[in-house]
Every structure is written in C-alpha cells, then in structure tokens.
Amino acid sequence: MVDERSVIARDPEPAAPAARRRWRWTRRRLDLAVYGVFLLAALWVTSGIWADPAGRVAALYSSDPAQVQFFLAHSVRVVLHGEYPFYTDQFNYPDGVNLMANTAILALGIPMVPVTLLFGPAVSFVTLVTLGLAGTAAAWYRVLSRHLVRHRLAAAVGGWFCGFSPAMLSHANWHPNIISQFLLPFIVWRVLVLTRSTRPVRDGALLALLVTAQAFVNEEILLFTALACGVFLFAVVVQQRERWAAARRPLGVGLAVCAVLAGALLAYPLWVQFAGPMAYHGLSDTVRDYGNDIAAFFTPGSPTLGGNERANVNLAPNYSEENAFFGWSLSLLAVGIVVWLRREVVVRALAATGLFFAVLSLGERISWWDRDLVTGPWELLVKLPLLDAVVPTRFGLITTVVVGVLLALAVQRAAALGVVERRTMRTLTAAGLVFALLPIAPMPLRVTTRPAVPTFITADRWRQYVGPDQTLVSVPVPAMGNTDPMRWAASTDLAFKIPGGYFLAPRNGVTGDPGRFGGRPSGIGELLAEVEATGRTPKLDDRQRRRFLDELRHWRAAIVVLPLNEQNAEPLRRTVEQLVGPARQELDVWLWDVRTLTSQSA
C-alpha cells in the first residue's frame, strides 16, 4: 500500500575517479560516523552515572533502577541455573511475582549476562540505557536512510530526534526497557513491506520474529507500534482508496502468518502473564489516569538545554514520564513542515497519526497548565482489553517518532530543490533545525549518590544465617519506596530471598484481581516506613508484637537487618527491639537472628 522506496526518487551517484574514491567518505564510513556520534551523545547523557555506576543514580530517582537491576540478576539465574524465566519467588516471598506481567526485559537481560557477571547489575543497567539511546537513533537512521530518504543528513536528523528526544531522555532516568526501541523501525518497515509483498508468507514470518523479540523487551511499546501502523495505514487508505485493492491480499496474508507464528511463540508466556500465578488485570489506579498536559507539548523537557524542572512539575505525572515537551520552536516547525509538504500523502498520514495519539496522550481529563478543561477521549477507551494496561501519557512517544520522520522528510525535500532554491532552503532549513532542536538538546542526566550495599551482604556474612527457603528481612521492609534491599539481592545474583519489593501484583495477592504496586499489605512494613519517615519511636503493644511475629513466620524470616547508616536508624532499631528483642552489631548492620522465633516448632 505504501511503497516507501517510491516516496523519494533516488538519483544515481556519479562515479568518482579511483584516486579520489580512496579519500572520499563512502556510505559505510558515513554510516559508521553517524553511529559514532549517536554513541558519543548517549555516553554524554549518561556520563554522570558512568563515573560510578554502583554509587550513582539519576537524581530524579525512583525505584525503577533497583527493579531493573533485580531483573538483570534474574536473567543470570535463568542462563546459569536454568531458573524458570516467567515467575520468581526471590522477592515478595512466599507469594512471588509474575515476571511476564512486570517487564522482566529478558530480551535485554539475557544478552547482558556476561556484563552482569563480570561487572555487576549496576553496570549492566547504565550500559542498557546508553545502548538504548544510541541504538534507537541508529536503527531509525538505518531504516530512514535505506527506505525513505536518500540524503544521510536527513536520515541522521530523523534518527537523532527519535533517539534523543525529550521523551527518550526523560525515560533514560529509569526505563531502559522503554528507550530500547531499536527493533521498532524494523517492525514498521516490515509492515510496510507487507503492503506490496510478493512473498507475504516469508515476510509475515520475519515480522513475527521481530514481534516476538520486542514482546520480551516491552509489550506496551509493541502495542503502540501496532496501533500507530494501523492508524497510519488507515490514513493512507482514506486518501488513496485504490491502494487498498492491491495491498489487502499481501497485507492480510502476511499479518495472518505473523499472528499465527508469533501467537504460537508467545502463547505460553502470555498465558503465564494473564492467567498464571500472581497475574493481574488492569493497571493500578495510581498510573491509569497519567496524562499529558496540553502545555507539555510546548515546553522543553527537563533533561534538555532549555529545560526547567520546576516549570514542568505539574505538566507530567513525574519526571520519568515527560512524553512530549517538544518546546514551542519544534512544535511550530512541525506544523510548518506539515503545511509546506501538505500535498504529500505520506505527510498527511503522518500528521493525522501524530495528532491522534497526541490527543490520546492527554488522558481522561484534558488540562492546560494543570487546569482541567474537558473530558478526554481516553475515558472511552481506558477499560478496553489491553488498553486497560496502557499508561496514556506514553502515547506521546508515537507523536515523537512522527515528528522525527517529518524532520527527515523536510531536510530531504530541502536538499532536493533546484540549485538557486537549494541555497536559500539550506540556510532556512539549518536555521530552523537549530532554532527547533537547540532548546531541547540533550544534557547529562543529573545524578545523586545512593547508599552502598552493606559490607554484611558483600562479604557474604548473611550466608551463615539464611537457608534456601528462608528470607532476609530488611528494615524498613522492601517496598516501592524502599528498593535498596532489591539491590542487595541483585548484587549476590539473587542468592537470598526477600519479602515485599517493588512490582505489580494483584491486590491482596489474589490472582486475577486488578493490579497494584506491591504485594499484600504489611502492617509492620507500614509501621517501620512511618518510623523511618518521622523519626518517632512508637510504643508497641502485645497485639502488634504478635502481628509482627506472624508476618515474620509467613515470610520464613531467618534474620532481620538494619544498616547502620539507614535514615533514622536509631528509632528503627528501638522499634524492632520492642518486637523481637535486642540487636547486635555485625559489621555495618544491626542484626536480629529470628530463626528460633519463626521456625515451625516455634
């Protein structure tokens, strides 16, 4: 239906004398240079973390980096010990966690096993972030330069924006699974190939392999890609209905082959995800209504040259979800490109696709500078199957790709003008790109230090206490706001189990219920979190002591551990001592050996 090879007519390049050819920039050298620039830019963005991967994290810190490191350690166990890949009870013991429903990034973690083994999960994390940014830019450059535009500069501009847009920089703080979009350009390309394929069975099978791989990187981004391709092709057909007659058979056959093959490959993992242990249906209410503010499209992103965190505070759900933030200059340029190239079917289809998903990204309530205006169309879709697990603000990532492709087309069209016009357009194009892209140029992620893994853990002193079916309980108890114990476990390749943690699970641990962050509510977990936050030591009664012991027995706790440098460590120590008796110091932690209290005989 859409013949991407015919979008731009390729002029044959004039032959060069042999003597000069040795000194020219060949296509291969140009490609390598562009890839090198992308890699250097990614290293620039992550440079603050690279200085000390184990001791630094993005300053806009949440629990996600620790969770990703835990999943990377799980991949090591899958490869070295043959551990079941789709579920684990190494955290949230004994209920466990459905990893297929928690973005366990197996397609990223398994290839990274050598790095994780040699250098640790913290190095693997920053490596994935770096390669995610550079790889996504390189992949879009590759597809654009081979199948849409002839000029390498046009493809480089489009690839740059797709890889280093404000949205990608925002997710680089915490979400390597979301910024690892290097398969998406090839999925889009193979879908377009199906519209004119002479071998739809083969092409459908190739698409199925790409889809299967992406499902183990991030299913939400795969769903976005499918939706974007559908809307784009529909927009093309509406404009040129005659294309449908030629495209419907190869497209239908290819997609059917893709669905059957990918469905067969993913059938069991998807069954585990939706019907296996600790499966849930629908996202937590905490994130289901995350939406962009309209003003977010006209404001530079926080991790950019012109960004301002304070100005953006109410325009996005949080700093890792700045999924628009193009700035006024780029927004105006994108509109100008659409007006300039409005006669082209592809441009109109791209514009319709980008606008459609920009509106959906506004969420259930459309707002302007944090003031609610009207109900958004997302409210009509949010309860549909699959869409009930989507974070709506992330639809802005589709609009981001659309803008990147429009930039590539604009640079290509400017370069293809006549000699006289070309001089003027080159100047205008260069000025426009600088005007639009400079305010959102990537800056290094701001970093902060984080507590080191206790020597008690790294020196393996815990091993003399904790058995295979017992847990190490940290103080405070692992939860969404306290993920350091997940890093402790990850540093040992998950050699010990922990209760709680940060993950999505069904409410109250009942398989099939709506999702929430964390496992079953823990009374002692909430108590210790309050003590850490306030620094006040409560007076506990016998009922609370019995409840704590019941929870320790449920977790099959062997030891309770409190780092000496934990915030409000002294009130926390006094609180736990009221529950299980005096602590003793061992290396850099307070330790309670509770095996006699939690054993079956007790």
From TrEMBL:
Recite the UniProt keywords alphabetically.
Membrane, Transmembrane, Transmembrane helix
Claim: ATP-binding is one of the keywords in the record: no
Outline the extent of the DUF6311 domain: 85-378
Q: Would you say which domain of life the source belongs to?
A: Bacteria
Q: Which Pfam families match?
A: DUF6311 (PF19830)
Where are the membrane-spanning stretches? 30-51, 118-141, 153-172, 223-239, 251-271, 325-342, 349-369, 389-411
Keyword Membrane assigned: yes
InterPro entries recorded: DUF6311
Protein's name according to its UniProt entry: DUF6311 domain-containing protein
